[in-house]
Amino acid sequence: MKSQRSPQLWLAILGALSLASCVPDIVRRETDLRLPPSYAATADTVNTGALPWREYYRDTLLTALIDTALAHNQELQVMLQEIAISQNEIASRKGEYLPFVDVRAGAGAEKAGEYTRNGAVEENLDVTPGQRFPTPVSDLGLSANVRWEVDIWGRLRNATEASALRYLATAEGTQFMVTHLVAEVAASYFELMALDNRLAILDTNIAIQKQALHIVEQQKMAAKANELSVRRFQAEVLKNESRRYEIRQQITETENRINRLLGRYPQPIRRNSSEFLSLLPDSLQAGLPSQLLLYRPDIRQAEYELQAAELDIDVARARFYPSLSIMGGIGYQAFSARYLVTTPESMMYQLAGELMMPLINRNAITAEYRNTSARQQQAVVNYERSVLTAYVEVSNQLAMIENMQQSYELKARQAEALVQSIDISNSLFLSARADYMEVLLTQRDALEARMEVVETKARQLRAVVDLYQALGGGWR
């Protein structure tokens, strides 16, 4: 009978193994990167993004602010702790495929009923001549135990490697945050300098308007002007004096924003705003689009996350296969402390192996397996999106720098012409060859033109900052 049933038993086991190893089909998406060979007609491998930020930003006051921000920014400190958490996760995963060894010591007591099998045995069995089992029976033990899951299919090692890749992704995410922090401090610093220049221009214009108001008042006293012209000049002066407080508020808010980035309470920000309009961007080189894959931390972060997602699929697939666990232990066990370490009588040991595989109701592991496939496809899309976003950002900032340079030159010429027209309009007004409205409009146009020059310079410098960040600069 046994010889007839054995083949059937083996066939059943083989059938169960075949069923257990049947893995559902999933979709694993491949990356599709089609980066253009260059940003323009000419290709140059020199890339400004490779420069350390200390070499890119030459203003010592600005570099001192960036240093403080990197040391004390609170969001960055939180991200650094995320790196520590990811590093601990690697150690935790690595320990899963190593043997677990623990030491146990225990004590207990038990009394069996006399009319039970154990009770009858204890009643009639001598421990030593003339001595019977004590009642109740103690149970003392001291042992070392080993548990080890044999990583046949690489599930545990793949999970460890995925954790290591996510650690690297977290580190790259922190570097990406550093590039944002450096750019934000630099952009706010230049914005603060622009506000100072706007305030200085406004003060100069108010002084000119007050002088014109004084002239109109003198002409009214000489019956050469009327009350309407005086009131219009007064209104213009009051309007611009009101704008001074708006700009001062913006200066306060910008200083506080920089202080918050630096992780400190509000205090004055040192800057040399008198050189703002003379600031010229150094020669900027965008390099090749393919260099973004090396220089941009967010792209490297997405790449590590993609690699981890691909390993997650292998980890999930391994759950369909049998797992082998080995357990063993060695130690001493006795009912009395004086017999506990008696060798070899009180020694005990055990060795066992366990082969376990999912057979029925595999919905949970199937669902997780399909989820890993979906997350892998998401990771591919995120990676491709990061590359596309980086290319578009660089392209936009290159165009912005070029266009703002052309715009700045034209607006500077416009402002110069309007500033010169102020003196002309004043002379014509004094000689009664122009009315007060022409003087007012000329002063107003000159003010707005000079403000636009400052605004254009600010946008130009912001593009310089953004291009450096878009190229992957700022974290070195």
Description:
This protein has 476 residues and is an alpha+beta fold. The protein folds into two domains: 29-97 and 151-321 and 359-470, Outer membrane efflux proteins (OEP); 102-150 and 323-356, Outer membrane efflux proteins (OEP) (Single Sheet), CATH 2.20.200.10. It has helices at residues 2-20, 53-56, 60-72, 74-96, 117-124, 155-221, 227-261, 292-295, 297-318, 363-430, 436-470; strands at 100-110, 126-128, 131-132, 137-150, 323-334, 347-356. Strand 2 and strand 3 (131-132) form a beta hairpin. Helix 6 packs antiparallel against helix 11 (436-470) and helix 9 (297-318) runs antiparallel to helix 10. Mean pLDDT is 84; it is low at 1-5.
List the helices and strands and how they pair.
Layout: H1 2-20, H2 53-56, H3 60-72, H4 74-96, E1 100-110, H5 117-124, E2 126-128, E3 131-132, E4 137-150, H6 155-221, H7 227-261, H8 292-295, H9 297-318, E5 323-334, E6 347-356, H10 363-430, H11 436-470
Antiparallel strand pairs: 1-4, 2-3, 4-5, 5-6
What's the CATH architecture name of the largest domain? Up-down Bundle
Helical region count? 11
Q: Assign the CATH superfamily of the largest domain.
A: Outer membrane efflux proteins (OEP)
Structural class: alpha+beta
Distance between the termini: 77 Å
Main features:
476 residues, alpha+beta, Outer membrane efflux proteins (OEP), 2 domains, 11 helices, 6 strands, elongated, disordered N terminus
What's this model, at a glance?
With 476 residues, the chain is α+β, with helices and mostly antiparallel strands. The protein is 63% helix and 11% strand.
